[in-house]
Design a protein that fits this description.
By secondary structure, this protein is of the alpha/beta class. The chain folds into 2 domains: about 5-185 and about 365-380, Rossmann fold (3-Layer(aba) Sandwich), CATH 3.40.50; about 205-365, Glycogen Phosphorylase B (Rossmann fold, 3-Layer(aba) Sandwich), CATH 3.40.50.2000. The protein has helices at about 5-15, 30-45, 60-70, 80-95, 105-120, 140-155, 165-175, 220-230, 245-255, 270-280, 295-300, 315, 330-345, 345-365, 365-380; strands spanning about 20-25, 50-55, 75, 100-105, 120-125, 160, 180-185, 205-210, 235-240, 260-265, 280-285, 305-310, 325. α4 packs across α5, α8 packs parallel to α9 and α8 (about 220-230) packs across α13 (about 330-345). The chain is globular and about 65 Å long. GO terms for molecular function: glycosyltransferase activity. Keywords: Glycosyltransferase, Transferase. It comes from uncultured Solirubrobacteraceae bacterium. It holds the Pfam family Glycos_transf_1.
């Protein structure tokens, strides 16, 4: 019998060994990126991948979810960035990872230097939107500084993982990592987010599920609802989420005299969001900018028509006139017009909601996202780079 060469034996062993992946998150709060990482870490095939997670923050709800799913997780923050960086370095040294994947700006910026200095791992930087500096003005000094630093240090990144076409185009337009950008959209488990039975109520319900932060622009939705209610349009408005601007949005509803038409449901888990969407007639996302909003995916998967702003990430999901209504951001009057059209025509919003569900099943399934991410990690672990 012919014996295998040492090269063949080595290659077979490398294929058989599980790919060790470290995911790095900057914060431990409930958000689209964080929940996507929980799903990725817990759902990638464990016979092929060994996925760990490091958080550059004290432990919180994401840490709890990961531990409940049996994923190794290290909350490293709480005592300043110097100590956090040292702790991350220790995790990298001990972990012997094949691939390190970090998200946002601070996490990837810190991690790329540590990965190159301390490990032989391949490094992936996850880009979640058009505003890497987390500021609203792309022309601001902070945004320009962040993009300059990204361009200067991009040689330390093996692959940029962009979850929206806009994010991929942003990197390309600034000459960052040509040939090393992968567009991998988020996905959703369509079996878990099926179209629920819906009995229309006398007063239609408009829902918005999002963190209360300035860029989500819930205040614009309150203004739009106030305009419609003043015109005699019947609606109920439900917000789910928490965050620093919650008090301002609640005060706006009081000041405009529409508090009796608005309910603040607080933060909801997945079961709570599904229950809310079962009652929902129109889902609204009034954001100034997005990465790829998981809540819009969830609403579409549940067959709900969407009224949202025409911004990066949302445009990847919602096609105006086909699966929902798109309006300019920061324009409450335009938002009111989109809602007015959706609320006035139940048959059309049901048709657009059904088309949205079909689009999610066709292009944004979770199993598709997991397969593409898995292929990327396997490719990088074998040492193949696209330069």
């Amino acid at each position: 019998m012919a014996q295998k060469s040492s090269d063949e034996t080595s290659a077979g062993s490398q294929r058989a060994r599980r790919v060790r992946v470290l995911q790095i998150l900057t914060c431990d709060g409930i958000g689209g990126t964080e929940l996507m990482v929980v799903k990725l870490a817990s759902a990638l095939a464990r016979d092929r991948f060994d996925v760990h997670v490091a958080l550059l923050a004290p432990g919180g709800p994401i840490t709890q979810r990961l531990r409940a799913a049996g994923v190794a997780v290290w909350p490293l923050g709480g005592r300043g960035w110097a100590i956090t960086a040292w702790r991350l370095g220790q995790v990298l040294r001990r972990g012997r990872y094949d691939v390190v994947h970090a998200y946002g700006f601070k996490g990837p910026f810190l991690a790329r230097f540590l990965v190159r200095a301390l490990t032989r791992a391949r490094f992936v930087s996850g880009v979640q939107g058009l505003h890497p500096a987390e500021v609203e003005d792309m022309r601001s000094f902070k945004s320009r500084l962040v993009l300059t630093l990204e361009r200067l240090t991009s040689r330390l990144v093996d692959v940029y993982d962009a979850n929206s076409e806009g994010a991929a185009h942003l990197l390309d337009a600034h000459g960052i990592a040509p040939g090393r950008i992968r567009y991998i959209p988020n996905g959703i488990a369509t079996a878990e987010w099926g179209v629920p039975d819906h009995v229309p109520a006398d007063v239609p319900l408009v829902a918005c599920v999002a963190r209360f932060i300035s860029r989500k622009r819930q205040h614009d939705l309150v203004l739009a609802a106030s305009k419609l209610l003043a015109e005699g349009v019947a609606l109920r408005l439900v917000f789910a989420g928490e965050g620093p601007t919650l008090g301002q949005v609640r005060a706006a509803a009081d000041d405009l005299g529409i508090a009796e038409h608005v309910r603040f449901a607080g933060p909801l888990d997945s079961a709570g969001v599904r229950a809310l969407l079962a009652e929902t007639d129109v889902y609204c996302q009034p954001s100034l900018w997005e990465g790829m909003p998981a809540t819009v995916l969830e609403a579409m998967a549940c067959g709900r028509a969407v009224v949202a702003t025409r911004v990066n990430g949302i445009e990847d999901l919602v096609r105006d006139g086909e699966t929902g209504w798109l309006v300019p951001p920061c324009e409450p009057a335009a938002l009111a017009q989109g809602l007015r059209e959706a609320l006035a025509d139940p048959d059309r919003r049901r048709a657009l909601g059904a088309a949205g569900r079909q689009r999610v099943e066709r292009e944004f399934r979770e199993d598709r996202m997991l397969a593409i991410k898995g292929e990327l990690y396997s490719e990088l672990a074998l040492g193949t780079r696209e330069r």
